From TrEMBL:
It comes from the Bacteria. InterPro entries: Split_barrel_FMN-bd (IPR012349). This is Pyridoxamine 5'-phosphate oxidase family protein. It comes from Lentilactobacillus raoultii.
């Protein structure tokens, strides 16, 4: 896991989730402070995100965009990343229970298995 990516995720800001197969693409947002980062996954609490969930029936590839002006980037202040992976919504289990305790309003957890993290700025 890239340390600069982890540094970006420590700062509050929007996290944009895009299904890359929809025409037009579906886009939803959440906050960085809601996202749990593990060695190979992003876990994101979900109450809505129904367009993303419907897209997964055909293709579960997603791209997540995150950034922070508080972290030094490639050409100065501000670093941003694209995270590419595959997603699924989970409604039970240990990860769901942990997230539900933190965020009682959720109905599911978006679990994204990371294939690639690329720094864009």
């Amino acid at each position: 896991m890239d340390q600069k990516f982890l540094d970006v995720m420590k700062h509050e800001g929007p996290v944009t989730i895009v299904t890359i197969n929809a025409q037009p693409a579906h886009v939803v947002n959440t906050w960085a402070s809601y996202v749990k980062v593990t060695d190979h996954q992003l876990l994101i609490p979900a109450a809505g995100m129904h367009s993303i969930e419907q897209d997964f029936a055909a293709d579960n590839h997603v791209t997540v965009a995150v950034g922070s002006k508080e972290v030094e980037g490639t050409v100065g202040p501000g670093a941003g990343f694209h995270v590419h992976g595959t997603g699924q919504f989970i409604k039970s289990g240990t990860e769901f229970d942990e997230m539900k305790q933190k965020f009682p309003w959720i109905t599911r957890v978006l679990e994204i298995n990371i294939d690639q993290i690329e720094q864009r700025i």
